[in-house]
TrEMBL record:
Domain B3/B4 tRNA-binding stretches: 71-225
Stretches assigned to coiled coil: none
Gene3D superfamilies noted in UniProt: Phenylalanyl-trna Synthetase, Chain B, domain 3
InterPro entries with a match to the protein in the record: B3/B4_tRNA-bd (IPR005146), Phe-tRNA_synthase-like_B3/B4 (IPR020825)
Protein name, per record: B3/B4 tRNA-binding domain-containing protein
Short name of one Pfam family: B3_4
Top-level division of the source organism's lineage: Bacteria
Length: 237
């Protein structure tokens, strides 16, 4: 069955209960088909190295959490009961690793991590071949399954009631808005179809959000010539 990217993107929703927490929230969703996965390579290394250099120049030795977009994300985490000093927004967690260098994971993850750091925006990727049904951002009931690992072993966790999570028909795919992705839908060396989520709050306007999305799409096209890309902005306005 042929994947209809436009229809799938149109099925994605943000629950009103989430927008009640942050009316300024927007998500830019990007699907990509025909990706070339694999280990980190020269292209992904170049993108990460450039992002590291730009971020070090931008932040110096200053506290990254004082950046307006990251400060807004900390407020958003507190709004649903998370403690951002313990479970940090994903972009902040990445930027805090700058002194030792950003992780090198695989070429697709490295690409989106470079965009996340370069634009100071939480950004994650999901394997569409393991996604079940529509993407929904909701406040959790608390009985959703979240597949992860602990001590190297697979475990099932459950989000706290009221926690903001991305989910599909099979369970939670990302906990605490953008804190941690599940193992079921993570990108791997076999991923050829993916969905990327770029999370924006008020300090990042739609122009800046579009610029981050455009750079991600350019990088994916360079890494995977012939890739088929579609996108949709959901949320405020």
């Amino acid at each position: 069955m042929t994947f209809d990217a436009a229809a799938w993107l149109e099925s994605a929703t943000i629950d009103p209960a989430v927008l009640a927490l942050r009316p300024d929230y927007r998500a830019l969703l990007i699907t990509a088909e025909g990706l070339r996965p694999g280990p980190s390579d020269e292209l992904s290394e170049r993108l990460l190295a450039d992002a590291e250099s730009a971020a070090r120049e931008r932040f110096g030795d200053g506290p990254v959490e004082e950046h307006p977009h990251l400060a807004a994300w900390r407020e958003a985490f507190r709004a649903f009961g998370a403690k951002p000093q313990r479970t940090r927004p994903s972009a902040e967690a990445l930027l805090r690793r700058l002194p030792a260098g950003l992780p090198r994971v695989d070429r697709l993850t490295d690409i989106y991590n470079a965009i996340s750091v370069g634009h100071v925006i939480p950004l994650g990727g999901e394997d569409l071949d393991h996604y079940v049904g529509a993407a929904r951002l909701v406040r959790a009931e608390g009985d959703e399954t979240f597949e992860t690992t602990a001590g190297g072993e697979p475990v099932i966790e459950h989000p706290a009631p009221g926690e903001v999570v991305w989910r599909d028909d099979a369970g939670a795919t990302c906990r605490r808005w953008n804190w941690r992705q599940c193992t079921r839908t993570r990108l791997t060396h076999d991923t050829t179809r993916a969905m990327f989520v770029l999370d924006a709050l008020g300090p990042m306007d739609d122009t800046a959000l579009k610029a981050a999305g455009d750079e991600l799409m350019r990088a994916l096209t360079e890494a995977s010539p012939g890739v088929r890309i579609a996108s949709r902005l959901v949320g405020a306005g």
